[in-house]
Write a structure and sequence with these properties.
Layout: H1 6-15, H2 20-30, H3 37-49, H4 52-64, E1 78-83, H5 91-100, E2 104-109, H6 116-119, H7 121-136, H8 140-151
Parallel strand pairs: 1-2
Helix pairs in contact: 2-3
Length: 152
């Protein structure tokens, strides 16, 4: 019902300024307890700039999208990264995903919420880079440069 009224919701969102309660809701739902206000502000701003029809489509997909039966047929490696304080994708959902994909590794970042890539960006980047190196092999040029830098 709301999806067909997204243009009206967008007009309302431009007129009515969200309260601090919305900021705290984003902080509570998307982040762990150690997130910075800057990270929360960034996410809040991103959400406020997202058109209502996109948000409503996302919520609809949460309700309708289920690929549980197809997980075992996925034949590519996967890195599942979750946060121990994620209130949107609960840790048991990340564990289920990793357990049911044929070639998956699960990494849970302690104290993070849903926005692991913001909250612990250095750790997240290291995890992804290490996993890619492991699965794809380190590119020769980058490996050669790393040896040169170490020799200096």
């Amino acid at each position: 019902a709301l999806g067909s009224q997204s243009h009206r919701i967008d007009v309302l969102r431009r007129v009515v300024r969200p309260s601090d309660a919305v900021f705290w809701a984003v902080a509570f739902l998307a982040f762990g307890p150690a997130a910075s206000a800057k990270q929360i502000d960034f996410t809040y701003d991103m959400l406020s700039e997202t058109p209502s029809d996109v948000i409503l489509d996302l919520l609809r997909s949460y309700r309708d999208f289920d690929v549980t039966d197809a997980l075992t047929s996925i034949r590519i490696p996967a890195l599942v990264v979750g946060g121990t304080h994620d209130k949107l994708t609960m840790s048991h959902a990340s564990e289920h995903l990793a357990d049911n994909l044929p070639d998956a590794r699960l990494e849970m970042l302690d104290g993070c919420g849903h926005m692991t890539m913001l909250e612990r960006h250095d750790d997240f980047d290291r995890l992804v880079a290490g996993w890619l190196d492991e699965k794809l092999g380190r590119p020769r040029r980058a490996a050669g440069r790393a040896k040169e830098m170490t020799a200096r």
